[in-house]
Design goal:
The complex is a heterodimer of chains A (251) and B (292).
Chain A lengths: L1 H16 L1 H19 L8 H25 L2 H7 L3 H6 L4 H33 L8 H23 L4 H16 L2 H5 L6 H10 L9 H5 L6 H28 L4
Chain B lengths: L6 E11 L6 E12 L4 E6 L5 H8 L7 E6 L7 H4 L2 E4 L11 H11 L9 H7 L15 H13 L5 E5 L7 H16 L3 E5 L3 H7 L2 E6 L2 E7 H5 L4 E7 L6 E7 H13 L4 E7 L3 H9 L5
Parallel strand pairs in B: 3-7, 3-8, 5-6, 6-7
Antiparallel strand pairs in B: 1-2, 1-4, 8-9, 10-11, 10-12
Classes of the chains: A mainly alpha (251), B alpha/beta (292).
Amino acid sequence: MKAVFTFSLMTLRMLFRRRTLWGILLVILLALAGIASVPSFDISNQGRFVLDFGLFGIEVGALLLALGLAANLYPRDRETRTLMPLIAVPLSRWQYLLGRFFGAALVQAAALIVTCLGLMLILILHELPIPGDLLPATLLIIVEGWFLLSTVFFFSFFASPPLNWPLTTMLFVLSQMSVSEFVSILPSAPGLMRTVRLLLPHADVFHIKDPIAHGFNIEPVYFLIAIFYGLCYAAFMLSLALAVFRRRDLK
Amino acid sequence: MTDVHPLQVKELSKRFPRKRGLGSVKAVSNISFNVRQGEIVGFIGHNGAGKTTTIKCLLGLLKPSEGSISLWGNAPADTSVRKRIGYIPESPDYDDSFTPMEYLSMFASMRDLSGFNKDWMKLLKRVGLTKWETTGLRQFSKGMKQRMSLAIALQSNPDLLIMDEPTGGLDPVARKEFRDIIIEENSRGTSVFLSSHILSDVETICDRAVILAGGKLVIEGTLKELLGGENLYRMTVISRKTGEEVEETIPEADLQSRIDSLRRDNLPIVKLEMALKSLEDVFLSVTEGKEQ
């Protein structure tokens, strides 16, 4: 595991030195600041409005970060041939995949924590209350981000970066749908659509922005189950990615 | 007891699927050779002869379609044998946001080379990168990147060095330094598998050569065997088409028939001399018409 750890650190350093991370982070923070400056219809609900849209903004930020950080990692490594000396000698393919994933996951988590702190700062500046579940809610978005990251890695082994973006975004959108919404896409085959929906990821488990915005308490066990589900799905997507990568000839 | 060679390739073939339509293209076809302990083996061929494909198969980057490869009796995917290899890729590139020092220490850590931190300066000095230890790799020229890849390959004191065109982009001085390092490494027992277009390099440092053409092995042997075979003659004749002088290298066995055909065509022989055979002559004569 030492090789994976070192390679993760190498990936982390590399991603911190790229402008992509800082660009996406700036866009998310500006969007959060923009949300806070939009007045809600009912001034008494301003806090709920900022929280609801703020957490949604962070969630979209998780998607952007996953794509921005990882969609180009493997294709670029192949194109610039930096992959060859790595895979040829010190690393196995699974070590390469895990190293790149953990490095990107740490950078993504750090960036999402910064956006959460940004949202807190915005709430403080607007003299709005900060709910106690904001940090756990961000933790769930981080786990969702890791699931998205693993999806981006999976697609990156057989799709180019311009194709990876719509594929991952499509999965992100589908994974947010409820069963009834999903069945309504093809109402003539409800059984099939229910089964497909069951197999697709359920990213809706990570969304607790509405209960938080409305001041409901969330049981700690819910957080634990949602985190466990997210990590299992990310591990599943990484296993699929590895299965594809192992079959790849590195010409 | 059978000798376990550092590298044994048996009936290796590699096919790639065609981009459009069915079928496949055979890049390497049924080649077999060994690299013995302490030997420097040159791997020669035209562009597209299958050298890089073979090397990528040796390192597990490509999966052979047929045949087998063993490194000290184990499969290339085995991590214990991969630790014993140093690899220099063709046109190496590295993430340009790092410095050589950072890259070397990360590779050392990934290879679990404890104690390397004491040696990295010595290694950079050996490959001529001392002044550039903290310079970003984005500022490195092709030749400097090749020196960097040599440093990475030598870092673990490998038992087998696999080099794919290592001196391609280097100036003559750097090429000489590269050759000296290869000889030094070999003198401490390292086996070397060197793919190169620069036949003079192969001739200078290799014990044996394996020649590929059109994905097939055409000849293999010690340099003594390859160069000491049939005599060659260099003949200058007048071209029938252009009327200009043309030089030809002809094996002794074909000499009489060539002279007869020139006589029949009434073409004069301007000069005829015995050629000192070089690896280039051998290469050209054995690969003639077999490029595709």
